[in-house]
Amino acid sequence: MKRYWQILRQPQISSLLVIGMIARLPHSALSMLLLLHLVTNLDQSWVSAGLVTALMTLGIAIGAPWRGARVDAWGLRRALIPSIFVETLVWCTVPHVALEWVYPLAFIGGLFSLPVFSVVRTALGIMTTGDQRRTAFALDATGTELVFIVGPASAGIVATQISSTIGLSVIGITASLAGLALMILNPPTRSDDPKAVAMRANVHEERLGAEASFIAAAPVGVAEVEGELITAGWKSARARIKSRGRAFKGRFNWISASVLAVFIAAGGAGALLTGTEVGIVAELEAQSRSGDLGIVFLFWCGSSLIGGLLYGAMNRSISPLMLLLAMAILTVPMYFATDTWSLALLSLAPGFLCAPTLSAASEWLTDLVAEKRRGEAMGWYGSAMTTGTALGSPLTGIFVDTLGPAQAFIGIGALAVFIVIIALIAQQIRRRVRRARRRRLEAIG
Predict the structure, then answer these.
(1) CATH number for the domain whose boundaries are 254-445
(2) Can you say whether the dihedral through the CA atoms of 28, 33, 35, 38 is positive or negative?
(3) What's the pLDDT band for 330 if we cut at 50, 70, 90?
């Protein structure tokens, strides 16, 4: 535990991790509480309720990179002000309006959702380097696991025992209070901030900085060595791309094949996790054991928490694609579950790799993207995961309806394996193209 104590002894980092957990808690309960409010209070079907949460998810997916980019451009405090006001207004209003108003309000609430993920991961990337960064991301991932154990369960208790109207209002207020706490803490999002407490340089980041300097001095249209946007050959691009095209390219020149692979891993992990969740619920319902859901989730999420802590103590990083591939393969044996306890035990193996996969993806993305673009990159990372989460649930539902609950684990696991294979093939193709362009540049030089 030495590495964890080294991280937690730094007040700025430990405060950020605690506030990040608290800030995520209302959002982790929001979807469940919103569903229950629509079904129980407004007498809506599950289809209508699902559409509302889908609109909110779409808003989050669109807003995450936008809000992250505003953090990069405006600074943390200015970027959080819109979220603080809008979240309170939206979620305190939703319980008191008719269904036709809930749809646009849910989308707006998602669009202006507090960018907790982007802020916390960007700040941790600034305040730590190397092995410290891996440990810090693992702590954040395990804290998130705790939040998603507590959040949905709390939403169910509030909706059934108190009031979903009160619960939604509390979520709006607490989300804004969490935004104010982040503004007061004001964690660094740039390395020149005095609060950036990284203890030693990151060799990989220094190399990326040197390559960025080389690209800045290169002629317009010359492909980047590592952090280039996937475009056509530099000669044809130089002739065809107009001023707006060049501006657009410059806007996204931090996207590389490796960055796209991280986004694919995030989307695949989101789909696999929600698919596994739906499969667990469907399997227990088929066995008439829905009341045992907490037992399975305790094993599944608890295993992820332990896996995240162990990954954070490692001396080396692991490709998030490889971790996702292993998690997908280990999900398939859940097909053989026959009762609650066998399902819980079979969930241990894939659950163990959940937090490490997300931690590794954040670590790789931080190393691959220049500091001035990390907030936006983390926003796109969150959007990729949100998109995967939104797709995983209905896809698994199709497997459940057509094949059965047990077969759904095979279906979602095979889908995640397919996603990883596509990403690995794309990476290999891109590396070959990159090597060819590098040789071309050397010949020109």
Answers:
(1) 1.20.1250.20
(2) negative
(3) very high
